[in-house]
Specification:
Blueprint: E1 2-5, E2 9-24, E3 27-30, E4 40-55, E5 58-61, E6 67-68, E7 71-72, E8 76-85, E9 95-101
Antiparallel strand pairs: 1-5, 2-3, 2-4, 2-8, 6-7, 8-9
């Protein structure tokens, strides 16, 4: 994975998965067997965050092994949200990209 930093920063990579849920008031909550006929929605849950310590400004790259917190991700679609934070605690806008873990 490649990215460019305009100044030295710490980078956080949040691995997220989109799942089905159901509408409970204004919130989208986890599906349960009893809620098959209720209005559906999509919910995104963060499975884990990979923190890359202070990186210098310019082009950077890192290798993603498909593991988060020591556990392998199951096959399926995922989203990666990347945020950079500089020394003054200024945070960049979050950039997202989609990827898929294929079945073996």
């Amino acid at each position: 994975m490649r990215f460019t930093l305009s100044e030295p920063a710490t980078v956080a990579l949040a691995v997220q998965r989109t799942t089905r849920g159901y509408r409970s008031g204004k919130q989208c909550v986890t599906r349960r067997p009893k809620t098959k006929s209720v209005r559906r929605c999509s919910r995104t849950s963060t499975l884990g965050t990979i923190r890359l310590p202070r990186r210098p400004a310019g082009a950077a790259k890192t290798t993603f092994t498909g593991r988060v917190g020591g556990r392998a991700l199951k096959p399926g679609p995922y989203r990666l949200a990347v945020t950079a934070t500089d020394d003054a605690r200024n945070r960049s806008t979050t950039k997202t990209t989609n990827f898929t873990i294929a079945r073996r």
